[in-house]
Write a structure and sequence with these properties.
Helices cover 25% and strands 27% of the residues. The chain is α/β, with parallel strands linked by helices.
């Protein structure tokens, strides 16, 4: 059986060979001028122009003299690789990916909306999305169910999961399991083992949703391997990443050292508190990736949009370059489907997020209606996808 890495690798040579030839003067399709370019993948943080030709990055230089068919004035704004949100539910609705694109999200992962019984329509929404997207298959055959999809462990069928992955290898990049007590109860460790078994058949990672779990994380962490993802990393007790005295569990630190990815996962209910963020970051537990847990109704919640979620980590002192890395370069490294994304390197597909970093007083909300006031907030300004400016409201 061909796994996803083999499937994607069949065309990798053609993709990686797509390079931009030096265009003649004035032949650029688009130049983004005068913005603060932040691209951790190439070590750039400074005022630059970004030139695009034939859908790829053609140049990133302090002052590009050549003209272009179209320009974006980015003076006073942030120019970053297109944002990659590794925990969304964008594909639940056919129009979700296009809405996320307006916020600068040029790559997304629908994280467990559907299981073996209902992944096919989700996969089709992803195939029709304007930007690159993929999905994590929920180990529960029903996908996410209000009230808990895994309270009956029989819903976690390895055989059905394998079949669903096999018929959607172009879309499915991993397996998701929710371990909250209300979702899975005492079945949590068995559900994780079954998710692992299904994923390993295709050499895929597992994303584990933590928060208010039945089993302590000291029992969960040893079951995770390099490349697996822990989302909602700042979920409060019971059974959080901190012990009863507020100290980081050694098993959490050990998991990170062996390559387990820790993801913010903003969400709406039960996924983080300001106190947990404060205590964990003081002990060095910053997110490897920043994600939103976004859906089409998120504009009316504390999520709002991806730049707003990024701003919450800025408020706690995470440097802008590291926040940008967590939303772009780091996220692109988690799943091979994004291997040539999350970068403005010459020759890469020209996916770009232009954002405004505004100064002032901005109120941010956690999942328990706690509020904090920050002095900076990122706002989406413009999105470029495959070298083309995305029309506002498209």
């Amino acid at each position: 059986m061909m796994n996803r890495r083999q499937f994607m690798g069949a065309s990798a040579g053609a993709v990686l060979a797509a390079r931009v030839q030096d265009p003649p003067a004035g032949a650029y399709d688009l130049v983004i001028r005068g913005g603060r370019v932040i691209d951790p993948s190439i070590g750039v943080d400074g005022i630059r122009d970004v030139a695009i030709a034939a859908g790829h990055i053609a140049a990133v230089e302090p002052d590009i003299a050549a003209g272009a068919a179209e320009t974006i004035d980015a003076a006073g704004r942030i120019v970053a690789p297109g944002l990659i949100d590794i925990h969304t539910h964008a594909a639940r609705d056919a129009g979700g990916p296009a809405l996320a694109l307006q916020d600068g999200v040029t790559g997304f992962v629908d994280a467990g909306s559907a299981g073996a019984d209902n992944i096919d329509p989700i996969a089709e929404n992803i195939r029709q999305a304007p930007q690159i997207g993929c999905a994590l298959l929920n180990i529960a055959r029903t996908g996410v169910v209000s009230g808990g999809e895994l309270n009956d462990i029989n819903a976690a069928s390895v055989a059905l999961a394998r079949g669903a992955i096999g018929r959607n290898l172009d879309v499915v990049v991993g397996v998701k399991v929710r371990l909250s007590d209300s979702v899975v109860g005492a079945n949590d460790l068995e559900a994780l083992r079954r998710a692992r078994e299904a994923a390993e058949s295709f050499d895929l990672p597992v994303m584990v949703h933590i928060g208010q779990g039945y089993s302590p994380l000291r029992a969960v962490m040893p079951l995770l391997r390099s490349g697996d993802i822990v989302t909602h990393m700042y979920a409060p007790p019971p059974n959080s990443v901190l012990d009863d005295r507020g100290r980081l569990f050694p098993e959490v630190a050990a998991a990170r050292r062996r390559g387990v990815v820790f993801d913010f996962g903003n969400g709406v209910t039960g996924h983080f508190t300001w106190e947990m963020v404060e205590r964990a970051t003081r002990q060095g537990l910053w997110p490897d990736t920043i994600s939103t847990d976004w859906n089409i109704r998120s504009g009316t919640t504390g999520v709002v949009d991806f730049p707003n979620v990024m701003s919450k980590l800025l408020m706690f002192g995470m440097p802008l370059t590291e926040v940008t890395a967590a939303a772009t370069t780091n996220a692109a490294r988690v799943f091979p489907v994004f291997r040539n994304r999350g970068t403005l390197n010459v020759g890469a597909p020209a996916d770009v997020a232009v954002m405004e970093l505004r100064e002032g007083e901005f109120e941010f909300v956690d999942n328990y209606q706690g509020t904090r006031t920050g002095s900076q907030r990122l706002f989406p300004f413009a999105t470029v996808l495959d070298g083309r400016l995305v029309p506002a409201g498209a």
